[in-house]
Specification:
about 425 residues; Adenine-n6-DNA-methyltransferase TaqI, Chain A, domain 2; Helix Hairpins; 4-stranded antiparallel beta sheet; 11 helices
Amino acid sequence: MARNIQEEAIPEGWKYDLLDKFATRCSGHTPSKSYPEYWDGGIKWISLTDSHRLDNGYIHATGKEISLEGIKNSSAELHPAETVVLSRDAGIGKSGVMAVPMAVSQHFIAWKCDNSEKLNSWFLYNWLQLNKAEFERQAVGSTIKTIGLPYFKKLKIAVPPYPEQKKIAQILSNWDKAITTTKQRLANSQQQKKALMQQLITGKQRLLDQNGERFEGEWENIKLSDLCLKITDGAHNSPPSVLEGYPIYSVKDMTPFGFSNDDVRIIGVNDYRVLSKQGCKPAKGDVLIAKDGSVLKHCFVVEEDLDAVVLSSIAILRPNPDRIISDFLAQYFSQEHFKFFVKKALTSGSGVPRIVLKDFKGIFFKVPSISEQQKIAAVLSAADQEITGLQQQLDHLKQEKKALMQQLLTGKSRVQIN
């Protein structure tokens, strides 16, 4: 953050001073809700409920609107388009740029930039994005964390001459466009896969067999326990941690396609041997699903025998290869409507979503022949690979932009001004 920048480290030609010297700092307010005429008057009003709209460049819409009367009878202000806004409460450090004139609640700080001589809005937006982690560290509070106004009064920034600011903003904008395009492609692929799954997994659309003829015949309605050789869960008593041994996974370690190895606990050799014999060791072809909390949020097929064990928050299903293939079963579980059904039907008495194995085993599935299952799974797997590729491309673009921001916004790399 600016406070960590030393005066002597400022690049030649740059200025280092209070942000208030370069832009006009503004705050916000919430008009009284006792007066309906203060609300729904066409003036977009950024509040905490709009947190999900931040960190995406322009803010085009808001969940709520206030009226001119609300502005006149409160401390709220109507800020011009291109005003930069930062959340200082929930979603601390998230920022955006107003696409049209808007007001903000008291949970935000806003800066009006002249966009001609002192400060460019998009240079400031990217600078806020670069320093987001520092804003998060500055938040204080026992229940609700916030950044107090005195912090922003002392906030300093290093800025280059305006033409260089504008050029930096343009360069980073090109990266934003590439990121936005990739995000849209990813969203489209996810939507297409969802639509395809709804057709294929339900049998509404039939594929072609190896002879080029469309699959026919009714699908069988079979109980889950009859489709699997084993349905169990992991260890119910967590063994003690040791320095060397084998990984032990819980739901928090699951991702859509496997386990994350970040901060994984390790168990001793003896514990591993005992739990392996108890069936807590996943084998190749097993289908693992999140059993507690985020029911079915993560579900994947084990690609190879794992030298690891799982805790009871994970259910282990071993499909009978003569009746159902692992990939088809995993795709079946990933349907949104099926997830909703399981969450509603198998929630524990405490109200926490939880798969109860004895009830889970009794769920019925409509399944086609093994050959049709294989064909369906192959099509959906190809869609998953495309989605994974786009997600990796998006992550790569974000990392590259972050590295570029670190160079350009600190002056470590200078841009050429024509």
